[in-house]
Design goal:
single chain; alpha+beta; six-stranded mixed beta sheet; five-stranded mixed beta sheet; 33% helix
């Protein structure tokens, strides 16, 4: 528009233009938080891939020492190692770019010593990646070249490797089509021009995830040319036992559980009443103090790998009795705690007869009802402490029992909590399930009510996000993205909320699937 000659009107028009520009540049807090969530999920998924790669390299070392596989291992291990070194170098280079970008966006430490920067800054990514010196640093072209060189280096390792996995490498450097003439043919312009700093950070995290995924495919290919991971032992037996069957109130018990195997590759995971315990030399040790008198049992689950490499488990029940000098016995029948939202059984017996036993309950949100001779159900609405006082006219027992939330369930898709999965198998799934495993109470149900799906890797040059609310099933939008998915696609499921005993909760778990 043409500016009027009158000074006051000139100023009004200029201010209008400035405000319009500011509105165009405004980025909502919700969008910034969404990018931070995606960035966190990508970092978690990359950590899972790192662990998988480390396990394969451990197997490589064993094969180098085995006379049977040494010859092939000497051929393929250096190739896998080259892929790892190339990936490490590029990963570190991108990590340095993330730091440099934060500095461009005003990185500093707040009063709590945490690093903060202007997440909404649109100019910092443009200066760092697009603008050439002296106005900027023009790192976008250098980044694109390093990514291209890395991909070419991986595919040059072996001709057969390039033919079999070349088309499925997650690192897709196709330049997206755009109607903006200024950005045509410029890979960096599409992703970093006038992009909020947190969005650019998330894009760099996606590239790091693609680098690690590409490394994983190459390393796994090299390993398969020698043979699968081997677990060498002939005999195994799960065991679980206490150091005593009868204790007095206040004494300590020790439960020892494990497998009689002679290989670290058995990788046992041991849980007692749903709580995972540390494992040393194939056995886990769980110590606790006997509280209320009565007869109890602990449920032990031992997960391990069989000689053929398949996953297996055994469940054991360890029983013990807690005695008391008194004739009055109060016993939490299943656990030494009460759980919010569940019917917690309590048994009370007295030497003077059940009709003379009086039981009172106190504590925030605690109530108890008698269901039969000496039998009570205790309900609790909030975590804390429950006080139980029982008297039979001669003796009095007072128990202070912790009240806890039930453990988080395990979220799964098709029974899997992440990892590699066939693309056609994932497409056949309907949604996300949540199951509480290895818990002392049977039949505790959780329903998934909300989750977020993130699609990246092959088939997704840009991150795609689908938010599902009010249902455990994939939404129509998510189903469309799943149809686009194929070998080399990574699907992350995060922000999972479930409803169950105690109400709604957000799980501290995300699922990361790599489609094959």
């Amino acid at each position: 528009m043409s500016l009027p000659k009158e000074p006051r009107q000139k100023m009004i028009n200029i201010m209008y233009l400035v405000l319009t520009a500011l509105l165009a540049l405004n980025v909502s807090a919700e969008i910034l938080n969404a990018f931070k969530t995606v960035d966190h999920s990508l970092e978690s998924a990359t950590g899972i891939i790192d662990k998988k790669n480390a396990d394969i390299f451990k197997s490589f070392k064993r094969k180098l020492e085995d006379p049977v596989s040494r010859e092939k291992a000497n051929i393929w291990f250096p190739r896998a190692e080259m892929a790892k070194k190339s990936a490490d170098s590029l990963y570190d280079y991108i990590e340095a770019l993330k730091k440099e970008l934060k500095i461009e966006a005003g990185l500093k430490k707040n009063d709590q010593g945490e690093e903060v920067y202007k997440e909404e800054d649109l100019d910092a990514p443009t200066r760092l990646f697009i603008a050439n010196p002296p106005e900027g640093k023009g790192k976008g072209k250098e980044l694109f070249q390093k990514l291209s060189d890395f991909k070419a280096r991986l595919l040059s390792i072996n001709d057969t490797l390039a033919q079999e996995i070349g088309q499925n490498l997650p690192l897709d450097l196709t330049i997206p089509k755009t109607n903006n003439k200024a950005g045509q043919g410029d890979w960096a312009y599409h992703y970093f021009h006038m992009t909020p700093a947190i969005a650019a950070i998330t894009m760099l995290s996606k590239l790091q995830n693609d680098v690690r995924n590409s490394e994983a495919q190459v390393v796994e290919y090299c390993h398969k040319e020698i043979g699968e991971v081997e677990i060498i032992y002939d005999e195994f037996k799960a065991f679980a036992a206490t150091d005593t069957k009868y204790v007095m109130q206040g004494e300590e018990l020790t439960i020892t559980a494990g497998i009689g195997a002679f290989s670290k590759n058995a990788q046992p995971t041991i849980s007692i009443d749903g709580r995972v315990v540390p494992v040393k030399d194939g056995a886990g040790e769980y110590k606790f103090v006997a509280t209320a008198p009565g007869t109890y049992s602990k449920k032990v689950r031992i997960n391990f790998k069989k000689p053929d490499g398949t996953e297996s488990f055994e469940e054991k029940e360890v029983k013990y009795t807690v005695g008391t000098p008194s004739g009055l016995v109060v016993s939490t029948d299943r656990t030494r705690v009460f759980y919010v939202g569940l019917d917690n059984p309590l048994s009370v017996t007295g030497g003077s007869g059940d009709e003379k036993v009086n039981v009172t309950f106190s504590g925030s949100g605690v109530s108890g009802n008698k269901t039969g001779p000496g039998q009570f159900i205790v309900n609790c609405s909030t975590p804390g402490i429950a006080n139980v006082i029982a008297t039979d006219g001669k003796n009095t027992q007072k128990l202070t029992i912790p009240i806890k939330k039930t453990p988080d369930p395990l979220a799964t898709v098709g029974g899997k909590a992440g990892g590699a999965i066939a693309a056609n198998l994932f497409r056949a799934q309907l949604g996300v399930a949540a199951e509480l495993k290895d818990f002392v109470f049977e039949g505790v149900k959780y329903n998934v009510t909300e989750f977020t799906m993130i699609f990246t890797g092959r088939g997704f040059p840009e991150l795609e996000v689908a938010e599902i609310k009010g249902s455990p099933y994939f939404s129509d939008e998510a189903k469309q993205y799943i149809k686009r998915s194929g070998e080399g696609t990574t699907i992350i499921i995060d922000e999972i909320k479930v409803v169950g005993p105690g109400g709604t909760r957000k799980l501290q778990q995300n699922l990361s699937f790599t489609l094959q």
